[in-house]
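Appendix B, example 12.
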Amino acid sequence: MDLIPKPGQVVSAAGNVATLLVRGGLADLRPMPRTLVDEGPLRELHHYRPATTVAPQSDPILLVTPPAAPSLCYDLRRGCSLVEHLVVGGQPTYLVEYGELSLTDRDLALDPWVEDVLPAAIREVSEQAGGRPVHLVGWSLGGILALLTAADDPTLPIASLALLGSPVDLAQVPLVAPPRPLLDPTKAGGLTGRGAQVLGSIPIVKWAADLGPVQRLVAKPLAVGTRLDDAEFLAQIEAVDRFTAGMSAYSGRTYGQLYHRFVRGNALVAGEIELGDRTVELAAVDKPVLVVAGATDGIAPLKAVRPLVDLLDGAPEVQLEIVPGGHLGLLTGRESRTTTWPALDDWFTQWPAEPTEPTAPSGPAIGTGRRQHGSKASRRLST
């Protein structure tokens, strides 16, 4: 609202406050309807019900949930839901999540997701879609898991990958860089044993949400108080608060086992990681990859995401899109409706079923360009 509110702003603010008091909120938090179609250890595969009875003509999309976050990241609220956007657009849409992780899962590493959980989900989605290859979309650590899965088994029926806010060089992440020496027992003052385990177990997205309590206590009420006439803003705040509250289910040592290796060793910046008794190399990815980075993302800043363009030198194309927003905002913020989502739509159209196989490259060429909704840098293998 203006410093001196206009009459219309006062009326809107009063209406929003009344709705908050009577209904308890402004956001439409109804989930998009879905059906559980397959399950197994650490795997629940859901199919979102189509908006029409017309048979889909496009390849299916599988949304990969980060182990650190609830699947609400893809279905935040009506009007700011990537799932809603895809379903209304006629895209066959699936989501894989992992259920409640228990104390018996506390020693899990990345291996089950890469070896069993995601491959099984990909094959099931492809089978349900009549053998079509699957577009993988992963946000944050979900994107990393999707990427490692594609690198580990090139025979999987994958059409393309879209990685949203997925960092590979954690030395460039401001929230991670300060404690990394503490997590390295080889350095002076480094923590060992229980101390490193506890610090390494803090989910980075939850950690970011918990930083700066004084700033939040002051800034958030002030922002809300000055925008009581903006129902969309208030609804988004409400939905994000619900999402953040749901992240506690994945805190503790279980998530620590997943994230600790990235923080402590910064393994992926070299383009490979040890999984079980083998080395998984990112250069083995032979599918087109869309990389999306948020311009103001403090958890996965551009410098932490940008190395993917060079590391994925086996992919027929790697495209980098820089969009407005922070870590969650780039996926499901209000601006994502005109930035990230159209970029995904363009990407799925660009890489339909059975894409042409590239010939041996004569060398990568990197070009730059501009789109109305953001900036783009592409690397294409010559054919």
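The chain has a mean pLDDT of 75. The first strand starts at residue 34 and ends at 40.
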